[in-house]
Protein backbone atom coordinates (compact mmCIF):
# COMPACT_ATOMS: atom_id res chain seq x y z
CA UNK A 1 0.00 0.00 0.00
CA UNK A 2 2.51 2.59 -1.15
CA UNK A 3 -0.01 5.19 -2.23
CA UNK A 4 -1.53 7.11 0.63
CA UNK A 5 -5.27 7.37 1.12
CA UNK A 6 -6.51 10.93 0.55
CA UNK A 7 -8.47 10.74 3.82
CA UNK A 8 -6.06 10.03 6.64
CA UNK A 9 -7.47 9.20 10.05
CA UNK A 10 -6.92 12.70 11.38
CA UNK A 11 -9.24 14.11 8.73
CA UNK A 12 -12.01 11.76 9.89
CA UNK A 13 -12.07 13.17 13.38
CA UNK A 14 -14.36 16.14 13.73
CA UNK A 15 -13.20 18.81 16.12
CA UNK A 16 -9.51 18.01 15.76
CA UNK A 17 -7.49 21.15 15.22
CA UNK A 18 -4.79 20.71 12.60
CA UNK A 19 -3.43 24.19 12.15
CA UNK A 20 -1.19 24.71 9.15
CA UNK A 21 1.74 27.07 8.85
CA UNK A 22 4.29 27.68 11.57
CA UNK A 23 2.45 25.77 14.31
CA UNK A 24 2.18 22.67 12.14
CA UNK A 25 5.85 22.93 11.16
CA UNK A 26 6.85 23.21 14.82
CA UNK A 27 4.77 20.14 15.71
CA UNK A 28 6.29 18.17 12.86
CA UNK A 29 9.86 19.10 13.78
CA UNK A 30 9.37 18.40 17.49
CA UNK A 31 7.79 14.99 16.85
CA UNK A 32 10.48 14.13 14.31
CA UNK A 33 13.12 15.17 16.86
CA UNK A 34 11.41 13.07 19.54
CA UNK A 35 11.37 9.96 17.34
CA UNK A 36 15.00 10.42 16.28
CA UNK A 37 16.06 10.99 19.88
CA UNK A 38 14.10 7.97 21.11
CA UNK A 39 15.76 5.66 18.62
CA UNK A 40 19.23 7.08 19.23
CA UNK A 41 19.32 7.17 23.03
CA UNK A 42 16.30 5.14 24.16
CA UNK A 43 13.35 6.22 26.22
CA UNK A 44 15.05 6.33 29.59
CA UNK A 45 17.72 8.78 28.35
CA UNK A 46 15.37 10.99 26.33
CA UNK A 47 14.39 14.35 27.77
CA UNK A 48 12.34 17.37 26.75
CA UNK A 49 15.46 19.57 26.72
CA UNK A 50 17.31 17.29 24.29
CA UNK A 51 14.29 17.07 22.01
CA UNK A 52 13.98 20.88 22.11
CA UNK A 53 17.62 21.37 21.08
CA UNK A 54 17.26 18.87 18.25
CA UNK A 55 14.05 20.54 17.02
CA UNK A 56 15.45 24.06 17.40
CA UNK A 57 12.71 25.25 19.75
CA UNK A 58 12.63 26.40 23.38
CA UNK A 59 11.82 23.70 25.96
CA UNK A 60 8.98 25.94 27.13
CA UNK A 61 7.36 25.52 23.70
CA UNK A 62 7.26 21.76 24.25
CA UNK A 63 6.00 21.98 27.84
CA UNK A 64 3.31 24.48 26.82
CA UNK A 65 2.02 22.32 23.99
CA UNK A 66 2.53 18.75 25.24
CA UNK A 67 2.78 19.18 29.01
CA UNK A 68 5.50 16.56 29.49
CA UNK A 69 7.86 14.11 27.82
CA UNK A 70 5.09 11.50 27.90
CA UNK A 71 2.82 13.88 26.03
CA UNK A 72 5.38 14.32 23.23
CA UNK A 73 6.01 10.58 23.00
CA UNK A 74 2.30 9.81 22.83
CA UNK A 75 1.76 12.41 20.13
CA UNK A 76 4.75 11.07 18.19
CA UNK A 77 3.28 7.55 18.28
CA UNK A 78 -0.09 8.90 17.22
CA UNK A 79 1.45 10.88 14.36
CA UNK A 80 3.26 7.82 12.99
CA UNK A 81 -0.01 5.89 12.96
CA UNK A 82 -2.03 8.76 11.52
CA UNK A 83 0.34 9.41 8.68
CA UNK A 84 0.59 5.77 7.71
CA UNK A 85 -2.73 4.12 8.40
CA UNK A 86 -5.72 5.34 6.47
CA UNK A 87 -9.36 4.25 6.45
CA UNK A 88 -9.83 1.63 3.72
CA UNK A 89 -13.06 1.39 1.70
CA UNK A 90 -13.05 -1.77 -0.41
CA UNK A 91 -16.75 -2.63 -0.19
CA UNK A 92 -16.45 -5.55 2.27
CA UNK A 93 -15.35 -5.80 5.89
CA UNK A 94 -12.88 -8.55 4.99
CA UNK A 95 -11.40 -6.44 2.20
CA UNK A 96 -11.12 -3.41 4.48
CA UNK A 97 -9.45 -5.46 7.21
CA UNK A 98 -7.03 -7.02 4.70
CA UNK A 99 -6.02 -3.56 3.51
CA UNK A 100 -5.51 -2.51 7.11
CA UNK A 101 -3.47 -5.56 8.15
CA UNK A 102 -1.31 -5.14 5.04
CA UNK A 103 -0.74 -1.48 5.88
CA UNK A 104 0.25 -2.38 9.46
CA UNK A 105 2.76 -4.96 8.25
CA UNK A 106 4.12 -2.58 5.62
CA UNK A 107 4.56 0.04 8.34
CA UNK A 108 6.61 -2.42 10.37
CA UNK A 109 8.68 -3.45 7.38
CA UNK A 110 9.78 0.16 6.90
CA UNK A 111 12.93 0.37 9.04
CA UNK A 112 12.45 3.71 10.84
CA UNK A 113 8.90 2.78 11.93
CA UNK A 114 9.99 -0.56 13.24
CA UNK A 115 12.72 1.07 15.32
CA UNK A 116 10.30 3.71 16.62
CA UNK A 117 7.71 1.14 17.55
CA UNK A 118 10.32 -1.05 19.24
CA UNK A 119 11.26 1.89 21.45
CA UNK A 120 7.68 2.92 22.09
CA UNK A 121 6.58 -0.63 22.91
CA UNK A 122 9.71 -1.12 25.01
CA UNK A 123 8.98 2.04 26.96
CA UNK A 124 5.37 0.91 27.26
CA UNK A 125 6.62 -2.20 29.09
CA UNK A 126 7.26 -0.02 32.11
CA UNK A 127 4.33 0.92 34.27
CA UNK A 128 4.67 4.69 34.12
CA UNK A 129 2.74 7.31 32.19
CA UNK A 130 4.66 6.48 28.99
CA UNK A 131 2.91 3.15 28.90
CA UNK A 132 -0.53 4.66 29.25
CA UNK A 133 0.04 7.46 26.78
CA UNK A 134 1.54 5.12 24.19
CA UNK A 135 -1.28 2.62 24.56
CA UNK A 136 -4.06 5.19 24.42
CA UNK A 137 -2.64 6.98 21.40
CA UNK A 138 -2.30 3.78 19.34
CA UNK A 139 -5.72 2.63 20.50
CA UNK A 140 -7.37 5.90 19.54
CA UNK A 141 -6.18 5.61 15.95
CA UNK A 142 -7.40 2.02 15.70
CA UNK A 143 -10.74 2.88 17.27
CA UNK A 144 -11.28 5.66 14.75
CA UNK A 145 -10.50 3.44 11.77
CA UNK A 146 -12.58 0.61 13.24
CA UNK A 147 -15.60 2.82 13.84
CA UNK A 148 -15.74 3.84 10.17
CA UNK A 149 -15.26 0.42 8.57
CA UNK A 150 -17.52 -1.45 11.00
CA UNK A 151 -20.27 1.17 10.66
CA UNK A 152 -20.18 0.61 6.89
CA UNK A 153 -20.27 -3.18 7.39
CA UNK A 154 -23.31 -2.80 9.67
CA UNK A 155 -25.07 -0.66 7.03
CA UNK A 156 -24.33 -3.31 4.38
CA UNK A 157 -25.85 -5.93 6.69
CA UNK A 158 -22.57 -7.84 6.87
CA UNK A 159 -22.29 -7.86 10.67
CA UNK A 160 -24.68 -7.46 13.63
CA UNK A 161 -25.55 -3.89 14.62
CA UNK A 162 -23.94 -4.23 18.05
CA UNK A 163 -20.56 -5.37 16.68
CA UNK A 164 -17.69 -4.04 18.78
CA UNK A 165 -15.56 -2.05 16.32
CA UNK A 166 -12.53 -1.87 18.63
CA UNK A 167 -12.65 -5.64 19.09
CA UNK A 168 -12.79 -6.22 15.32
CA UNK A 169 -9.60 -4.18 14.89
CA UNK A 170 -7.95 -5.90 17.88
CA UNK A 171 -8.73 -9.33 16.41
CA UNK A 172 -7.32 -8.36 13.02
CA UNK A 173 -4.19 -6.71 14.44
CA UNK A 174 -3.38 -9.04 17.35
CA UNK A 175 -1.91 -11.99 15.37
CA UNK A 176 0.45 -9.59 13.56
CA UNK A 177 1.69 -7.96 16.77
CA UNK A 178 1.98 -11.40 18.38
CA UNK A 179 4.32 -12.49 15.59
CA UNK A 180 6.27 -9.23 15.64
CA UNK A 181 6.68 -8.82 19.40
CA UNK A 182 5.94 -12.06 21.24
CA UNK A 183 6.90 -15.04 19.10
CA UNK A 184 9.28 -13.00 16.88
CA UNK A 185 8.18 -14.86 13.76
CA UNK A 186 8.10 -13.41 10.26
CA UNK A 187 4.81 -11.92 9.08
CA UNK A 188 3.95 -12.72 5.49
CA UNK A 189 1.16 -11.95 3.06
CA UNK A 190 -0.70 -15.14 4.07
CA UNK A 191 -0.67 -14.01 7.71
CA UNK A 192 -2.17 -10.59 6.93
CA UNK A 193 -4.91 -12.17 4.81
CA UNK A 194 -5.65 -14.81 7.44
CA UNK A 195 -5.83 -12.30 10.30
CA UNK A 196 -8.36 -10.25 8.31
CA UNK A 197 -10.33 -13.35 7.32
CA UNK A 198 -10.56 -14.67 10.88
CA UNK A 199 -11.61 -11.28 12.29
CA UNK A 200 -14.21 -10.70 9.56
CA UNK A 201 -15.63 -14.22 9.97
CA UNK A 202 -15.86 -13.83 13.75
CA UNK A 203 -17.61 -10.47 13.32
CA UNK A 204 -20.08 -11.86 10.76
CA UNK A 205 -20.95 -14.73 13.10
CA UNK A 206 -21.67 -12.35 15.95
CA UNK A 207 -18.68 -13.41 18.06
CA UNK A 208 -17.42 -9.82 18.34
CA UNK A 209 -20.51 -8.07 19.74
CA UNK A 210 -20.24 -5.43 22.41
CA UNK A 211 -20.36 -6.86 25.92
CA UNK A 212 -23.71 -6.19 27.58
CA UNK B 1 -6.95 -22.82 37.39
CA UNK B 2 -5.24 -23.05 40.74
CA UNK B 3 -4.88 -26.80 40.74
CA UNK B 4 -2.10 -28.04 38.55
CA UNK B 5 -2.68 -30.62 35.87
CA UNK B 6 -0.98 -33.91 36.72
CA UNK B 7 0.49 -34.03 33.21
CA UNK B 8 2.52 -30.89 32.66
CA UNK B 9 3.83 -30.18 29.17
CA UNK B 10 7.27 -31.53 29.92
CA UNK B 11 5.78 -34.89 30.77
CA UNK B 12 4.07 -35.05 27.38
CA UNK B 13 7.33 -34.82 25.51
CA UNK B 14 8.90 -38.18 24.88
CA UNK B 15 12.65 -38.20 24.97
CA UNK B 16 12.95 -35.21 27.29
CA UNK B 17 15.40 -35.89 30.07
CA UNK B 18 14.19 -34.58 33.43
CA UNK B 19 16.65 -36.04 35.86
CA UNK B 20 15.69 -35.84 39.51
CA UNK B 21 17.98 -35.40 42.46
CA UNK B 22 20.95 -33.05 42.57
CA UNK B 23 20.95 -32.16 38.85
CA UNK B 24 17.29 -31.20 38.98
CA UNK B 25 17.87 -29.14 42.14
CA UNK B 26 20.78 -27.32 40.49
CA UNK B 27 18.66 -26.54 37.44
CA UNK B 28 15.85 -25.24 39.60
CA UNK B 29 18.11 -23.00 41.70
CA UNK B 30 19.96 -21.60 38.67
CA UNK B 31 16.73 -20.79 36.82
CA UNK B 32 15.22 -19.28 39.97
CA UNK B 33 18.38 -17.19 40.41
CA UNK B 34 18.23 -16.10 36.76
CA UNK B 35 14.60 -14.98 37.07
CA UNK B 36 15.25 -13.13 40.33
CA UNK B 37 18.34 -11.47 38.88
CA UNK B 38 16.51 -10.49 35.66
CA UNK B 39 13.73 -8.77 37.57
CA UNK B 40 16.09 -7.05 39.98
CA UNK B 41 18.72 -5.69 37.59
CA UNK B 42 17.23 -6.10 34.11
CA UNK B 43 18.50 -8.09 31.19
CA UNK B 44 21.30 -5.75 30.15
CA UNK B 45 22.92 -5.92 33.62
CA UNK B 46 22.43 -9.63 34.18
CA UNK B 47 25.43 -11.92 33.78
CA UNK B 48 26.25 -15.59 34.18
CA UNK B 49 28.63 -14.78 37.06
CA UNK B 50 25.97 -12.95 39.06
CA UNK B 51 23.45 -15.73 38.49
CA UNK B 52 26.06 -18.30 39.57
CA UNK B 53 26.76 -16.44 42.83
CA UNK B 54 23.04 -16.13 43.57
CA UNK B 55 22.48 -19.84 42.85
CA UNK B 56 25.55 -20.95 44.78
CA UNK B 57 27.14 -22.76 41.84
CA UNK B 58 30.31 -22.26 39.82
CA UNK B 59 29.96 -20.19 36.61
CA UNK B 60 31.45 -23.17 34.75
CA UNK B 61 28.43 -25.25 35.79
CA UNK B 62 26.17 -22.76 34.02
CA UNK B 63 28.34 -22.50 30.91
CA UNK B 64 28.61 -26.28 30.68
CA UNK B 65 24.88 -26.84 30.91
CA UNK B 66 23.37 -23.78 29.15
CA UNK B 67 26.24 -22.53 27.00
CA UNK B 68 25.56 -18.83 27.54
CA UNK B 69 23.44 -16.25 29.33
CA UNK B 70 20.90 -16.52 26.51
CA UNK B 71 20.66 -20.25 27.09
CA UNK B 72 19.83 -19.75 30.77
CA UNK B 73 17.27 -17.05 30.00
CA UNK B 74 15.57 -19.20 27.37
CA UNK B 75 15.40 -22.16 29.73
CA UNK B 76 14.04 -19.93 32.51
CA UNK B 77 11.26 -18.73 30.20
CA UNK B 78 10.54 -22.28 29.16
CA UNK B 79 10.44 -23.49 32.76
CA UNK B 80 7.92 -20.81 33.77
CA UNK B 81 5.65 -21.88 30.92
CA UNK B 82 6.12 -25.59 31.54
CA UNK B 83 5.35 -25.36 35.22
CA UNK B 84 2.25 -23.27 34.69
CA UNK B 85 0.65 -24.31 31.44
CA UNK B 86 -0.63 -27.82 31.15
CA UNK B 87 -2.39 -29.69 28.37
CA UNK B 88 -6.16 -29.35 28.87
CA UNK B 89 -8.55 -32.17 27.98
CA UNK B 90 -12.15 -30.95 28.22
CA UNK B 91 -13.62 -32.89 25.31
CA UNK B 92 -13.90 -29.99 22.84
CA UNK B 93 -11.37 -27.77 21.11
CA UNK B 94 -13.17 -24.66 22.33
CA UNK B 95 -13.17 -25.94 25.91
CA UNK B 96 -9.48 -26.84 25.71
CA UNK B 97 -8.61 -23.42 24.28
CA UNK B 98 -10.68 -21.67 26.97
CA UNK B 99 -8.81 -23.55 29.66
CA UNK B 100 -5.53 -22.57 28.03
CA UNK B 101 -6.38 -18.87 27.61
CA UNK B 102 -7.57 -18.74 31.22
CA UNK B 103 -4.31 -20.34 32.37
CA UNK B 104 -2.27 -17.81 30.36
CA UNK B 105 -4.16 -14.88 31.88
CA UNK B 106 -3.89 -16.34 35.36
CA UNK B 107 -0.15 -16.72 34.83
CA UNK B 108 0.10 -13.02 33.97
CA UNK B 109 -2.03 -12.01 36.93
CA UNK B 110 0.46 -13.68 39.27
CA UNK B 111 2.90 -10.86 40.05
CA UNK B 112 6.28 -12.63 39.75
CA UNK B 113 5.38 -14.14 36.37
CA UNK B 114 4.24 -10.82 35.01
CA UNK B 115 7.52 -9.19 36.04
CA UNK B 116 9.52 -12.06 34.54
CA UNK B 117 7.64 -11.93 31.27
CA UNK B 118 8.00 -8.14 31.11
CA UNK B 119 11.76 -8.54 31.36
CA UNK B 120 11.88 -11.45 28.92
CA UNK B 121 9.68 -9.69 26.38
CA UNK B 122 11.60 -6.45 26.89
CA UNK B 123 14.88 -8.24 26.28
CA UNK B 124 13.30 -9.92 23.27
CA UNK B 125 12.71 -6.45 21.78
CA UNK B 126 16.41 -6.28 21.02
CA UNK B 127 17.67 -8.13 18.02
CA UNK B 128 20.25 -10.33 19.70
CA UNK B 129 20.21 -13.99 20.65
CA UNK B 130 18.03 -13.27 23.70
CA UNK B 131 15.19 -12.43 21.38
CA UNK B 132 15.51 -15.64 19.44
CA UNK B 133 15.95 -17.88 22.45
CA UNK B 134 13.02 -16.29 24.28
CA UNK B 135 10.77 -16.56 21.25
CA UNK B 136 11.68 -20.13 20.44
CA UNK B 137 11.28 -21.33 24.02
CA UNK B 138 7.79 -19.85 24.41
CA UNK B 139 6.84 -21.08 20.97
CA UNK B 140 8.00 -24.60 21.70
CA UNK B 141 5.73 -24.91 24.73
CA UNK B 142 2.76 -23.60 22.78
CA UNK B 143 3.48 -25.87 19.86
CA UNK B 144 3.58 -28.89 22.15
CA UNK B 145 0.27 -28.06 23.81
CA UNK B 146 -1.27 -27.21 20.44
CA UNK B 147 -0.18 -30.47 18.85
CA UNK B 148 -1.96 -32.52 21.52
CA UNK B 149 -5.25 -30.64 21.67
CA UNK B 150 -5.55 -30.16 17.90
CA UNK B 151 -4.75 -33.83 17.25
CA UNK B 152 -7.62 -34.77 19.57
CA UNK B 153 -9.93 -32.28 17.80
CA UNK B 154 -9.00 -33.80 14.44
CA UNK B 155 -9.78 -37.29 15.77
CA UNK B 156 -13.17 -36.09 17.03
CA UNK B 157 -13.85 -34.68 13.56
CA UNK B 158 -14.14 -31.14 14.93
CA UNK B 159 -11.55 -29.57 12.63
CA UNK B 160 -9.97 -30.42 9.24
CA UNK B 161 -7.09 -32.88 9.31
CA UNK B 162 -4.58 -30.32 8.00
CA UNK B 163 -5.34 -27.79 10.74
CA UNK B 164 -2.22 -25.86 11.75
CA UNK B 165 -1.89 -26.51 15.49
CA UNK B 166 0.62 -23.70 16.05
CA UNK B 167 -1.72 -21.26 14.32
CA UNK B 168 -4.66 -22.33 16.48
CA UNK B 169 -2.65 -21.56 19.61
CA UNK B 170 -1.39 -18.27 18.14
CA UNK B 171 -4.96 -17.19 17.34
CA UNK B 172 -6.14 -18.04 20.85
CA UNK B 173 -3.19 -16.39 22.59
CA UNK B 174 -2.63 -13.33 20.38
CA UNK B 175 -5.57 -11.19 21.59
CA UNK B 176 -4.46 -11.69 25.20
CA UNK B 177 -0.86 -10.69 24.52
CA UNK B 178 -2.08 -7.77 22.41
CA UNK B 179 -4.04 -6.46 25.39
CA UNK B 180 -1.21 -7.14 27.83
CA UNK B 181 1.70 -5.75 25.80
CA UNK B 182 0.47 -3.57 22.93
CA UNK B 183 -2.75 -1.82 23.89
CA UNK B 184 -2.14 -2.24 27.65
CA UNK B 185 -5.81 -2.96 28.31
CA UNK B 186 -7.18 -5.17 31.06
CA UNK B 187 -7.85 -8.82 30.20
CA UNK B 188 -11.04 -10.18 31.68
CA UNK B 189 -12.90 -13.49 31.69
CA UNK B 190 -14.94 -12.44 28.65
CA UNK B 191 -11.74 -11.81 26.69
CA UNK B 192 -10.33 -15.25 27.45
CA UNK B 193 -13.58 -16.94 26.43
CA UNK B 194 -13.86 -14.84 23.27
CA UNK B 195 -10.28 -15.52 22.20
CA UNK B 196 -10.88 -19.27 22.55
CA UNK B 197 -14.24 -19.06 20.78
CA UNK B 198 -12.84 -17.12 17.81
CA UNK B 199 -9.84 -19.46 17.42
CA UNK B 200 -11.99 -22.60 17.68
CA UNK B 201 -14.56 -21.23 15.21
CA UNK B 202 -11.83 -20.29 12.73
CA UNK B 203 -10.29 -23.76 13.05
CA UNK B 204 -13.65 -25.52 12.58
CA UNK B 205 -14.33 -23.48 9.45
CA UNK B 206 -10.97 -24.44 7.96
CA UNK B 207 -9.47 -20.95 8.19
CA UNK B 208 -6.44 -22.22 10.12
CA UNK B 209 -5.17 -24.95 7.80
CA UNK B 210 -1.49 -25.43 7.16
CA UNK B 211 -0.18 -23.37 4.26
CA UNK B 212 0.40 -25.51 1.18
From TrEMBL, chains A, B:
Keywords carried by this UniProt record: DNA-binding, Transcription, Transcription regulation
Give the transmembrane region(s).
Answer: none
The segments labelled Disordered in the record are: 1-24
Annotated region of DNA binding:
47-66
Q: Which species is listed as the source?
A: Actinocorallia herbida
Key word rRNA-binding present in the record? no
UniProt domain HTH tetR-type: residue ranges: 24-84
Q: One short Pfam family name for this protein?
A: TetR_N
Q: By what name is this protein known?
A: TetR family transcriptional regulator
What the entry lists under PANTHER family is as follows: HTH-TYPE TRANSCRIPTIONAL REGULATOR RUTR (PTHR30055), TETR-FAMILY TRANSCRIPTIONAL REGULATOR (PTHR30055:SF148)
Recorded GO MF terms: DNA-binding transcription factor activity; transcription cis-regulatory region binding
Amino acid sequence: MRQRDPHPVAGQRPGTVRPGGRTARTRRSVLQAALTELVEVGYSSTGVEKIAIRAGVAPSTIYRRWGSLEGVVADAAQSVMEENLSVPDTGTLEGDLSTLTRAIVELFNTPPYRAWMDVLIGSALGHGPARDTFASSTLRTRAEIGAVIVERAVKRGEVPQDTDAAEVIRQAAAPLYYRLYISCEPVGEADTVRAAEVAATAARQGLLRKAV
